[in-house]
Amino acid sequence: METETATLWLSDDEQRAWRTHLDVNKLLMHQLEKDLQPFGLTNNDYEILVNLSESPELRMRMSDLAAATLQSKSRLSHQITRMENAGLVRREHCESDRRGLYACLTDEGSDTMRRVAPHHVASVRRHFIDLLPAAELEALRESLAPVADHLRDQRSRS
């Protein structure tokens, strides 16, 4: 016979903290996406452009890009197709692995990053950074770091 374990329900303070986190995450991501819309980009598009622009040779293996953006390979493939059609990226075959593909930032993609990044940073400042004193930002970073580390560890195990 299985032993039932009691559910450790969230306290009122824990519930408020959790729900505030959920609200901030959803509302902030929605606002940042809204602020990217005039440029014809989504948050996913922008994240891919950032990853590629910060990579050596402005390219990444598709499998590494999928891992970096927490997307399935299939979903990333569809995303890259849309971005290829917009001229922001292109696919290249990997010479060392015939099955491997790179996603590469195009000149148009680089120009888009240079044009959009200042607006995106201003949006992040306006809707997040500038609303919190520096000491609270540091405390927030320190508080969330163990959660991020734990989740990265869980992801690497799966």
Keywords:
single chain; 158 residues; Arc Repressor Mutant, subunit A; 3-stranded antiparallel beta sheet; 6 helices; globular
What's the SSE blueprint?
Layout lengths: L11 H25 L6 H11 L5 E3 H7 L4 H13 L3 E6 L2 E9 L1 H21 L6 H24 L1
Antiparallel strand pairs: 1-3, 2-3
Helix pairs in contact: 1-5, 3-4
General description of the model:
It is a single chain. By secondary structure, the protein is mainly alpha-helical. It has a domain at 37-127: Winged helix-like DNA-binding domain superfamily/Winged helix DNA-binding domain (Arc Repressor Mutant, subunit A), CATH 1.10.10.10. 64% of the residues lie in helices and 11% in strands. The protein is built from six helices and three strands. The protein has helices at 12-36, 43-53, 62-68, 73-85, 107-127, 134-157; strands at residues 59-61, 89-94, 97-105. It has a three-stranded antiparallel beta sheet with strand order 1-3-2. A hairpin with a 2-residue loop joins strand 2 and strand 3. Helix 1 (12-36) crosses helix 5 and helix 3 (62-68) packs across helix 4. It is globular, with a radius of gyration of 19 Å. The mean pLDDT is 94.
